[in-house]
Amino acid sequence: MTLVAFAPATVAAQDRCDPEAIVSMADDILALRSEIEGVSARRGATTAAYLKIRYDEMSDDAAQEMLAELEASDLVEAPILAQALAVTRDGPRDGLARFGDPIELLTAAQPSVKRAALAYDDGAEYFEMVAEIRADPALNETFNRTDYSGLRTASLVYDLDDARRQAIAKQAEASGELVTALHLYASLADRAPFDDFLDRQADNEAMGVFGTPMAIRTSLVDVLRGPEPLLASPDASEEEQSRYAMERAVIRAAMLTPEASYLTTLYNQSGELEAVNEAATAYLDALEAGEIDGAEDAWLTQLDALIEAQSSDWAYNLLRAFQFPPGEIRHYAGFASDTLDYARAARQATAPLSGEEVQAPDLLSETEQWSDWLTAVGIAFERSEPADQDEGRRVVELLFDSGQVTEAMDYAEAHLDPETRWPVLRDLLVRYDLQCDGHTAYPGGSLLTGGRVLYRF
Q1: Maximum alpha-carbon separation in the chain
Q2: pLDDT at residue number 251
Q3: Which one of 225, 369, 432, 452 has the minimum C-beta count within 10 Å?
Q4: Residue 435 pLDDT exceeds 70
């Protein structure tokens, strides 16, 4: 068993996949870097390079040559990709030695590099190197700033199957990295290895802290692994159990929302656990039924459930108070209310492009006008010149959402200036990957990685 990750819900989504279109989009994004000031520091270009390597099936040598050129042109995250690729092929010590001192590099390594090291030989060499880091107080202090004494390490391999995760857990335990081992054992479908581990560590005071029911129940891996907690808390009151079950559903729904989630923010701002729990539960049911196809579908399913649980005014008053999602995830990101209205309008406006009857949606934000989308529909049919860049973005969105991916790219190239085209392509690239092989998807990534792409080879 692998821990659940968001994947295209329908066969139709897979049928829309065109790897050549992804490579073309990635090439366009990398080419645009030279036309936009400051773009070299943005992660979108690194993700484009990553997906080009994966979908173009580049050899290691060709990929490293491309990454060296990108690093020379000041793509600041190119070394992360290069190191992750080298570690995947040659192991952490030899792979990192190509870039400097391997122990120092692993000490401050980014998650993608650590993940590659853990996945190589089930972590044996990685934990040997960690022991060397632990022996140096200065290096150990630096390492713990990102490792959190092992709390974060386990989450880097949650996409591997149970056999691989258990093998890595055994290496971690043998090396004394007990918190990492604990969380990896906790992630397994079979709880026997977890129970055996706790028995072996019964006299370990640290496990008395990290291995308690509350410590496990509040860990993200326990929420991610399934709807029921791994360990019960018999001393908790019925009210406490009920509250925890609802909070668990909210966090689980957030973790299983592709790319980014607003549910936890909404709960933190409103304190209305029951209403947010209803939205989370409705979403989880729809996800299990295979009814969710993409992030927008997830966000709107949750919004509809929130409105049903409370009211439109209640939902939108809260959604106007914070930005969602981060701008690097959606080209149309703004206040959550505006983002969700944009997503709903785009979904409704694609109907005529698919030969269906269009129905005007209820849009409650002040910035989104349905008439603008109807105008964009006409332009999309005719492929005519947009009045401005915002109108051009709507046309590209409509073409992409209706499955006309190549046409969307062609229209963007013809009618969007580089500053507008860059975030649109960066956004569509990841969305299209999630309809294809899902190299940017990761179990619980919206919370575990903050929506950042974990580069995996």
Answers
A1: 73
A2: 93
A3: 369
A4: yes
